[in-house]
Amino acid sequence: MLDGLFSTADELLAKQEHIFEMVKIIFTDHTGESRKVNANAGESVMEAAVQNGIPGIDADCGGACACATCHVYVDPQFQSLTGERSDMEESMLDFAESVRETSRLSCQITVSDTLDGLRVTTPEDQH
Ligand code: FES
Question: Does domain 21-121 have CATH number 3.40.50.2300?
Answer without folding.
Answer: no
